Amino acid sequence: MKLINGFDLMEYARERGHILPAFNTTNMEMTYGIVKGLQNAELPGYVQISSNNLRLSNPFVIADLVRDAVKDSDTPIGLHLDHGKSFADVKACVDAGFTSIMIDMSHLPFEENMRQSKRAAEYCHLYGIPVEVELGALAGKEDDIVNEDNGKTDPKQVPIFVEGTGCDTLAVAIGNVHGLGLTPQIDIPLLEEIRQVSKVPLVLHGGSGIPKETIWECKKHNLVKINYGSDVRRAFIRVFGEAYEKNHGEFDLFRLSMAAVEAVAAKTQELVTMINEH
Ligand code: G3H
Ligand code: ZN
Q1: How far is CA 263 from the centre of its chain?
Q2: Mean pLDDT, the chain, as a whole number?
Q3: What is the dihedral of CA 256, 261, 265, 268, to 10 degrees?
Q4: Would residue 37 be called left, alpha or beta, if left means φ above 0 and alpha means ψ between -120 and 50 degrees?
């Protein structure tokens, strides 16, 4: 299959009652593992890469890689920019053929977040690509960016922000955290308050570590997408770490890389299946 447009992917998931996982990739092996895991589960989802990671894998390289990885897939897979940190990154990813975009200006004051998110949304919409924006601040560690704030999304700001940005999905801060260092405490009543005033579906970042029952509950409150980074990265890294622990002279990079693809595929399959069990 070709990469699927983000609007079509959300529609596909909505019609079938699926929630869409988005798995963060860093390199070729992780990309192959994520795609394989989705294929094995026969469930739809996204490969996503953060702005920060684009310093290692430029948008054209990653887009070519993902296009190639999904070509034999029977399940719809999109390519998403995660935590887009500049208009230049958004533009580069649209130009490279990404099918879905996040602009994350949530560290900026409300008005400035809205202004910059709107600019990105207008650009993406010219190309028929949906845009995720973020309101509120997640605590924790995303790539090498550590955020100690934990400002939950204010439902009063939601309708103004959604209208003002023209976004297609809204990432919320409801006690979810990035990374594995903090424990998520998902505030379902707040999610419901947000759902009532948001005309667009909602996105949850920091999926690693959230219990499945909580995710199933979130699904009832118009959650369309959930992000997983740390869980799949850990599956990848563990292969190399364990091999090194066993043998400090290990140098069979090919065998370990193949094993890492399988480990990421298994974790991806486990997560996408788990979130869609109910
Ligand atoms: O944007 C990516 C994520 O929100 C991943 O969070 O590493 O806690 O799963 P996580
Ligand atoms: Zn995130």
Answers
A1: 19
A2: 95
A3: 100
A4: alpha
The token duo for 230 is 């740390």
Task: Tell me the CA–centroid distance for residue 256 and ligand 2, in Å.
Answer: 28
pLDDT tens-place string over residues 5-45: 999 999 999 999 999 999 999 999 999 999 999 999 999 99
Cα–Cα distance for residue pair 234/8, rounded to 1 Å: 31
Q: How much is the pTM?
A: 0.96
The residue behind tokens 């010219």 is: 126
φ, ψ at 177 (rounded to 5°)? -135, 155
Query: What is the amino acid identity at position 227?
Result: N
- CA 226 to centroid of ligand 2, rounded, Å: 9
What would the two tokens of residue 171 be? 């990432």
Name the one residue in this structure whose structure tokens are 């090498």.
144
CATH number listed for the domain at residues 6-275: 3.20.20.70
Q: What digits encode the pLDDT tens for the residues 166-200?
A: 999 999 999 999 999 899 999 999 999 999 999 99
pLDDT score recorded for residue 57: 85
C-alpha 102 to ligand 2 mean position (Å): 10
| Phi, psi for 48 (deg, rounded to 5) | -135, 155
As a whole number of angstroms, the distance between CA 233 and CA 23 comes to 9
- pLDDT tens-digit map of 218-277: 999 999 999 999 999 999 999 999 999 999 999 999 999 999 999 999 999 999 999 999
192 CB burial (10 A radius; 0-12, 13-18, 19+): middle
Ligand 1 pocket residue status of 229, Cβ below 6 Å = yes
To test ligand 1's pocket by mutation, which of 47, 48, 132, 208 has the most ligand atoms within 8 angstroms of CB? 208
Whose alpha carbon is nearest atom 6 of ligand 1? 206
